[in-house]
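From the pipeline queue, job 12 of 40. The input is one protein chain; the requested action is below.

Action: predict structure.
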Amino acid sequence: MEETKKTLSRRGFLKAAGATAAVAGLATGGAALTPWSAEAAALPKKWDETFDVVVIGSGFAGLAAAYEAKKAGASVVVLEKMRTPGGNSIINGGVVAAAGSPLQEQQGIKDSSDVLFQDMLKAGLSLNHPELAKMVAEGSWPTVKWTIDELGVKYKGRVSQEGGHAVPRMYSTYNQSGSAIVQQQLAKLKELGVQPRMQSYLTQIYRDADGRVKGVQIREKYVFPKTDSGKLKTIRARKAVVLAAGGFGADISFRTIQDPRLTNEVDTTNQPGATADALREAFRIGCTPLQVSWIQLAPWGSPDEKGFGLAAFFGQGCAAVYGLWVDTKTGKRFVNELADRKVRADAILRVGNRCIAFCDENGTRLQKDAIPKFMERGIVKKYDTLEEMAKAYNVPFEPMMEEIKKYNEALVKGKDEAWGRYLWKDAKPIETAPFYAMRLTPKVHHCMGGVNINTDAQALDVMTDKPIPGLYAAGEVTGGVHGAVRLGSCAVIDCLVFGRIAGKNAAAEKNWA
């Protein structure tokens, strides 16, 4: 009877959460771990290695955290479970939101961080934690400027637009890939003497009886996805652990628990290592789960390729900006092609996943040099006439032509009355041959939920809502920033903003050891 209700509540909740992890054998190296409690917590008798800051994950967020922590004078190790660094970040499309930027000013586009913030709330159905979303919006241009000035990242000379954004505000890397940022982060870290350790799989986070996180257990020389491969090793974190392990879009087991529709029949844009093992371990030691069931589908995927691929660059960069998306059964538009990703993905599923995205020769201007590659991969097909295109996809010709006519008239009026789509100033009528088209299908893309954090990137305890001492988190492994829907190009900013915050604050922690 001396045990408090709070302790009983903690044990009850964590018993359930821990059971899930134990049954799945994830984040445990194959061994079942008990839920964290002050009574059960135990540190290794001897640590194999010691660093000030231990970073889990080598994507945008993890590398940003490691860079700032090292610059602040901390000793740092970056642990990555896969054979190569970068995670989803290195295959990211390389588009970054920057509100109120010089490129916007050059193109006569009026924008501000508050407009971006409002766009994030609208797309997120106001489920965003506003204090977190506001930091991302306000940090958008300063962070892109930081990548240019300090990291040396190169971008194209004009901004573009993703769905859900009120205006064009995306900077695009010179190679249309997140690798342009990741490689610069890796190079800067190497100059500072830090190189990620590959095949280092997190199996346990050590949270001591005093409630503080003090280190991790890993499997060194781990071979994905063999959870019992490699050798167990313990690493002490004298100041803090930064969790930046990314999302779980490729984890079919965990994602179908959250959303039963997302079975193995639904493809993903994520790399194979995007699994929930580190997230499960975070929950086991008492982190607060936040909006984990909000999983985003990318609307511009193609069934004619696996993974992220190249479809997004045509479906978004050509057809959504200068062309149309139509239902092949009716020949009609069925959605605002520049709506947020959830709206568009839901619309594709609603009409039965029978849709194409197309544009004419003028519509390829942003991707002109890449069109041959799209066609070589079999993603995009080329047609001499609209009639030929309609026949290839069994699209009713007359209804499709009526939609094209309405769109062309909307360009003259300067307003898309049918769907409220943003019309680019340099858009031209769809009429110039040849014509290009691709099939559309949604793919699992981004996890909006994860660990609950505060504005200092501290992970919060599920029982007290207070920071867990010595534990920070950043990037897709966290929740709250995006609410129901993440706007395209906001993930990179989210990762970099909170990765940098986590690294700086982790380095500033007191040395408990």
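Job complete. The first helix runs from residue 5 to 24.
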